[in-house]
Amino acid sequence: MMRPARISSAQVLVAQTLAAQVLVALLAGAVFGLGLSLSGMLDPARVRGFLDVAGDWDPSLAFVLGGAVTVAFAAMALRRRLRRPAFDAAFHLPATTPIDQRLILGSAIFGVGWGMAGLCPGPALAALSLGLAPVVLFVAAMLAGMVIHDRFAARQPGGSRS
């Protein structure tokens, strides 16, 4: 008869930390999705109205963006004071922040896509809960683009290291 393997206290701690990370990520994602829903960011027509500064502009989402920037600013200020995050050994931040042609081109493509579809990745994932065919198509195209990037563009010289 085989004895069950003993689990060390270090293994228990790792498992508890991983469980805490997953729980916090799920909670943060739920709060983020709820906020996107309450703010109207899941409605592509409303987003397009916000982006149409030369036409019938809807400024209401400026308050959402202002609130997001305020929260992010406070979080970054807090991060500078912390040695490490609550459920990890270290912060995982990029080593450098170059503004190069790839970043500018990617930002432009993102902005054009956001303006055309009225969705960006976060709200699109949250809008999946609505079951709308255009949202499902957008998310499928987004995932396909990510796979294509990872398979081809990231392997090219000068490709991203993400």
Give a description of the structure:
The chain is mainly alpha-helical and 162 residues long. The protein has 6 helices and no strands. The chain has helices spanning 9-39, 44-51, 60-81, 101-117, 121-127, 133-151. The longest helix has 31 residues, at 9-39. The mean pLDDT is 86.
Bin the helical content: 55-70%
Radius of gyration (Å): 20 Å
Largest sheet: none
Relative strand content: under 5%
Q: Could you name the ranges where pLDDT drops below 50 across 5 or more consecutive residues?
A: none
Write down how many β-strands occur, each being a DSSP E stretch of 2 or more residues.
Answer: 0
Supply the number of helical segments.
6
- Give the H and E element order: HHHHHH
The averaged pLDDT comes out at: 86
Give the helix/strand class.
Answer: mainly alpha
Shape descriptor = extended
For the termini, the CA-CA separation is: 47 Å
